[in-house]
Amino acid sequence: MARSDVQLMLDVKAGDSTSFELLLLKYRTPLINFLYRMVRNQAAAEDLAQEVFLRVYRARKEYAPSAKFTTWLFRIATNLALNAVRDGRYRQMEISLDQPAGDEEFGPQQPISLPDARPGIEQELMERDRAAQIRRAVEALPEKQKAAVLLHKYQEMDYAEIAKILQCSESALKSLLFRAYETLRVQLAPLVVASRRGMGG
Amino acid sequence: MSGRGKKGVMNCKHFERKLIAYMDGKASEAERREVEQHISACAACHTRARDFAAVWGMMDALPAIEPSEAFDARLRARIAVEPVRRSFWAEVLPSPRFALSMSLLVLCSVWLANRAPASTPPANSEAEFKMINNLPVLENYDVLSKFDVLSDLPTQTPGANE
Predict the structure, then answer these.
(1) Which residue among A95, A150, A157, B151 has the highest number of C-beta atoms inside a 10 angstrom radius?
(2) Which A residues 7-66 touch B at CB under 8 Å?
(3) What is the pTM of this model?
């Protein structure tokens, strides 16, 4: 029977390094993706993720299962990401990401010199442009709203857990989420309208 | 302030607070009914709920990234050079062997302390009391020697000195 995260962490506390490896394998991808969307750069996100796991490892002896493991993990990650963004530590990287010549999510953009007759290429470019717009709209949210949206939409955490991570009440969190999605709705209005037409709405 | 309009129907402000939980499927049955009533009566909120669903769908389409190949190795290397943090007792005691011998020493002391009264013979309280009373006499050598002299004297009969 699979051990719970809390049990794995208690085993890490007792000196079992294999349990730490299991937690690492389970959470490194969601954690890096969360941090990537917070700081907009993969190298920076991986640096922060390393720091998160190191802090977990260093705190193993004092670990007490008072909350879910993910609450603890993402609280450390959120605090590190918010501090990094506030310090402007990754600003230079962000600027380079915002250049229209490249998009890290899809690799460097290839120069297009001639129109290509293949319909698949145009569709692919449209999809890429659409995804870039969505990503930029999410990244442009105020930091706390962005963290709330990322934890809600991509980590699928419940309100109580997100509220603990962001250190606010559940009611404040719901309000935060509503404002964030309302902003996205406005920012992505052309895409929303297009999707409505596509659905026949 | 109540979250309801004049006709007992949820107003837009109240709807905003309930919409996310409704869309997540986490609203209570009563809340769900209220939200659906409001959506059917308010075109703006109906559009908003539909647009939120569209935004969520778009966000789902965003690709995720994979950790770089070096991520795990780099983390393991950093953990390997982490200084070993010793516990309070590990800091206080030089070694586990020393701690064990100290514990055994303490246990032996406690055991011996508890054992000592049990090894003494049970006290004969009357004999002991007499001995204690006679201690000043027993310690006085002169008195004892006089007892020996007196014991050598002939037994006097009553009226012999008369």
Answers:
(1) A150
(2) 24, 28-29, 32-33, 36, 42, 45-46, 49-50, 53-54, 57-58, 61
(3) 0.69
